Amino acid sequence: MLDRPAHIPAAITQAPLTFPWTNQISMRLDDFDGVPAHLGTALAKISYKGRLALALASLEWVVWRLSGWIDVRDALERLEAAWVLQVSVSEVRDLGLESVRDDLGVRGNPAGPLQEVLMRLEILELMFRKGKPQLSTKSGLCAVLASHVLPADSGFEDWLEVALHALAVTDPCAPDFDRRALRFDYSGEAAVPRAWFDNPSAPRDPESAVAQWDSFVATAHAGNNPYLVPVVTA
User: Fold this and answer.
1) What pTM was computed for the model?
2) Of 113, 144, 167, 201, which has the fewest beta carbons less than 10 angstroms from its beta carbon?
């Protein structure tokens, strides 16, 4: 299972849950018109896999922020599996939810945004498998969700700005990407390692990235993640 990454401060796990939460807020935070213009512009400059990686990294901020108040094991296992999507879609099982609750609209209730994370992981997985260009907007909405639930002094906004600028250099948007297309072929894009977000920098060393992915996938399988298809060895 995932450990808290170095770039996410431990203090946020115990910060008071003062954010408002209602079903209406949940819907507003998932409105496709709700991505700020500057964020949408920045996302348009990075690759398809980069957009997925940023979405997952943003959702990790949310999960760790809630981890001191609610059991997040299932969310972390789903996140771990979602990271593997970039390198092997066939190794990831369905991340769909059996049901959702509509009675979690209480200020500071950690169950509300945690369910929101799970719902977003479900749609991110579906979009990525199908190469849907709309994944770009969903990525932005994951960052919007994080901004809503994280303390103002968490460091998320600064981290996000650095990550976006770096991704535009290390993982630029493909010239043939068309947001109006039914499907985008991302098979030729490089996967963005989770570990890279601890210190986003440009350029990224390709050999180090491969080593980071090999280590990440091996660790994920070693932990018997229920959302990963077991690797059969001869």
Assistant:
1) 0.95
2) 201
